[in-house]
C-alpha cells in the first residue's frame, strides 16, 4: 500500500519514504509488509476455497533474511531453501524445520547432513549422486528422509510463452522421457532411507500464462498410472514450483497469482480423476509473486551528463551492486521521484548506476520531473532478486533493508560498513603490524 502523502512524498506501509531515506541513508530497500501478508494469505485462501490440501512454500532465494523468514513463519507458509546458507538463516530465524524444503542440483554432503540432522520437512532430490549421499547419511543418522523427486517434464516457460520438448536440456532434475525418473524411483522405493512423498517440477520464472503449469502437470500425470502399476506407488504430494509473474512495467500483463493456482488445481483434479489415484496435496513455491512488488529501492540522485541530442544520464548512488537484474536480464523497471511524486514529468532521463562499467544502467529513457542532486529516486518492484543478488562489486557496501507496516518502520538488515568489507581480508604477512 504505497501512496503519495500531503508532502508530495512516497509513502510505504504508512511511512514517509523520504523520512526513511534521511534516517537510514540511501540506497535503501523498503518493504511494504502488509502487501507480503496479503499475497501470502491469498495463496492460502485460494487452496482453502478449492478444498485442496496444500503447502505454500516461500522460495526464499527471492529475498532471504531472518526477519523475512519470521514473517513467513507468522503467515504459516513453508520455506524453500537452496543452500546451507539459506538453511542456516532459517534456523537462526527459528523457522520450524518440518516446514523447510531443501532444493538444489548440487547439494553438498555437509549441506545434506545439516538438513537431515535438523529433520527438515523434505529434501527435493535432484540427481543420482544425491540419492547415494542421502542413503549414506540416513544410515549414519539412523533416520528416514522425506523426499520429493524433482522431475524435468520437458516444459519450459519463457515469460510470455512456453515450449515443450521431449528432451528438455536442463541441469535440473530427472528427465521424464528417458527412464531417469523410473531409475530414481527404483532406488528410492527399495531403500528405507527414504519416504517418497511425491514429485516436484519447476518450469521457469516470471511466467504470465497458466498453460505451462497445466502442461507440466499433465506430463507428470501421463506417467502416474504407469508408475502405480510398476511400483505400486501413488504420490502424496505434487509440487509445481514457483514462477508466477508480476508486473514490473506496463509491458507486463500477468494474471493475479491466485489465478495460476486455480488453473493448476483444476487441471490436477481432472488428471487425478482420469488416473484413478487419490488426490495428492498440491504444493507451490512462489518467490517473486510474494515479495516482488512489496519492495522499493530509494536512491539519491547525484551527477548528470548530457550527450547533446542523444540523452541525459542521471546517476544514482547504487546500481548493479544492489540490482543486477537490468544488467543481467535487461529487466525493466518503473521509477519516480520519491520526494516530488506528483510534479510534472517534463524530462526524460536514463538512470545510471555508480559502478565502473557502462552496462550499469538501471532504467533507460525514464519520464521524470527535472531532477536535482539529492532528490530521491524510488525504483519500484525491487523486492525479489534485488537484495538477494546484491554484491560488493567495486567494494560498494550492500544497502540496509527496512520493513514498513501500519505507519511504523523497522530496520531488518543493517547497511554494510567499510569495516565489514575488509573483515575477511588478511594482510600480507610482512605488513601485519600496519593493519
Ligand atoms: N522453485 C524453484 C525450484 C525455483 O528454481 C525457483 C526460482 C522458484 C521456486 C521461485 O520462482 P519465482 O516464483 O520467484 O519466479 N534471478 C532471476 C530469477 C531466478 C529464479 C530461479 N528459480 C530473476 O531475478 O529474475
UniProtKB/TrEMBL annotation:
**Where does the record place the Orn/DAP/Arg decarboxylase 2 C-terminal domain?**
29-383
- Which pathway does the database say it acts in? Amino-acid biosynthesis; L-lysine biosynthesis via DAP pathway; L-lysine from DL-2,6-diaminopimelate: step 1/1
**What does the record give as EC number?**
4.1.1.20
Q: Name one GO molecular function term.
A: diaminopimelate decarboxylase activity
Gene Ontology biological process terms from the UniProt entry:
lysine biosynthetic process via diaminopimelate
* Top-rank taxon: Bacteria
* Chain residues that bind pyridoxal 5'-phosphate: 243, 285-288, 385
Keyword Chloroplast, does the record have it? no
Task: Write down which residues bear the modification named N6-(pyridoxal phosphate)lysine.
Answer: 61
Q: What's the catalysed reaction?
A: meso-2,6-diaminopimelate + H(+) = L-lysine + CO2
Q: Which residues form the active site?
A: 356 (proton donor)
Binding of substrate, residues? 288, 325, 329, 357, 385
**Required co-factor?**
pyridoxal 5'-phosphate
Q: Which keywords, in A-to-Z order, does the entry hold? A: Amino-acid biosynthesis, Decarboxylase, Lyase, Lysine biosynthesis, Pyridoxal phosphate
Q: What class of enzyme is it?
A: lyase
Q: Where is the Orn/DAP/Arg decarboxylase 2 N-terminal domain?
A: 35-291
Quote the subunit structure annotation.
Answer: Homodimer.
| Family note | Belongs to the Orn/Lys/Arg decarboxylase class-II family. LysA subfamily.
Q: What is its biological role?
A: Specifically catalyzes the decarboxylation of meso-diaminopimelate (meso-DAP) to L-lysine.
Q: What is this protein called?
A: Diaminopimelate decarboxylase
Tell me the classification of the organism that encodes this protein.
Bacteria, Bacillati, Bacillota, Bacilli, Bacillales
